[in-house]
Amino acid sequence: MTPEVVRRHYLDAMGITAWACRYQLPNARPTEACEWEETPTKKPPRERLHALLDDAPAPRPRSQPAAAEQGNTSPVASPSAVKALLGHSPASAPTPEASPVPEPRVPPAQPTKPLSFSLSCACVGGRWLSVCEGEMSPVEQQLLANMLRAAGVLRGELPTVTYFKWPPMATAFAPEEPLEEAQEGVAAFVAGAASRQGWQLEQVLWWGAEETATDLARVMALTDGQSQTLALPVWQGPSLAVLTQQASAKRALWPRLVALGQQWSAE
Fold first, then answer.
1. pLDDT one-digit tens code per residue, 20-74
2. Which residues fall in a compositionally biased region of kind Pro residues (predicted)?
3. Separation CA 216–CA 166 (nearest Å)
């Protein structure tokens, strides 16, 4: 029986009248043709419905086709098993590349400040360079000349005092190595003055060398009585500012000045 016939029998058994069109509407789907069976003797709707339900075929279990398909299927050898039978070692799976570890972000380096210092210097006899930190006042210049004359080192007037300041221009540049650049600046200043004046430097007289916490002390780089920056031996004395104010400091310095004069004469 076609589905249309079964549908009409169900509707008839349920007491529902089925209608069929006599005319085909434009663009309508044509009615399916079917073979009509002889109309059986009408029974009450309830009896006919039960009869149709009893005549319905039992549903087939779905597991049987699946089991049959599983029984008919034969195991398929994998490519790795075939290679193993042929004596080829299975290719090792490629090792996944490790994801690159992001590098920690380094904060930008803060700009370094240059060392700041100044010095005054005068060359005695073209041999000894007298150096003190800061700008030498007229009183300090007069005191220095008197001490060197008394020691027999200076004859005549004190040579011209030269003033040097570092950095030359405060906002000119941001140094990468403040100490190294300051040392190079002082060395270049002294070497340039010696070249212009024809000095033959043998020693440095450093007044105020006991103040080791200053930037000038770091720049001079004093080690075992030798300046690493100027590559010259260094004689160390108290600062001229202290000598102008304390008579006891002058008396304590006198024996050393005498020895300094003897060294000058011997050389």
1. 666 667 777 777 766 666 665 665 656 665 666 566 555 565 555 544 455 455 5
2. 97-111
3. 10
Neighbouring C-beta atoms of residue 141, cutoff 10 Å: 17
**What is the DSSP secondary structure assignment for residue 173, as one 8-state letter?**
-
Phi and psi at 113, nearest 5°, equal -95, 140
**Whole-angstrom distance, CA of residue 153 vs CA of residue 202:** 14
- From CA 208, how far away is CA 237, in angstroms rounded? 6
Q: How far is CA 265 from CA 17, 125, 237, 255, in A?
A: 148, 12, 19, 16
Q: Rounded to whole angstroms, how far apart are CA atoms 184 and 240?
A: 26
Asked, for residue 169, whether it belongs to a domain, the answer is: yes
Q: Which domain holds residue 34?
A: 3-21+29-54
pLDDT at 91 over 60: no
198 contacts: CB under 8 Å, gap ≥ 6: 126
CATH code for the domain of 220: 3.40.50
The reply to whether 43 and 122 lie within a common domain is no
Q: Is residue 66 part of a domain?
A: no
In a domain, 84, yes or no: no
pLDDT band for position 200 (cuts 50, 70, 90): very high
| 126 secondary structure, DSSP code | T
Query: Are both 35 and 142 inside the same structural domain?
Result: no
Residues 48 and 173 in one domain: no
Domain count, the chain: 2
83 found inside a domain? no
pLDDT higher at 85 or 232: 232
Residues with Cβ < 8 Å from 204, sequence gap 6 or more? 128, 129, 130, 131, 227, 230, 232, 233, 234, 235
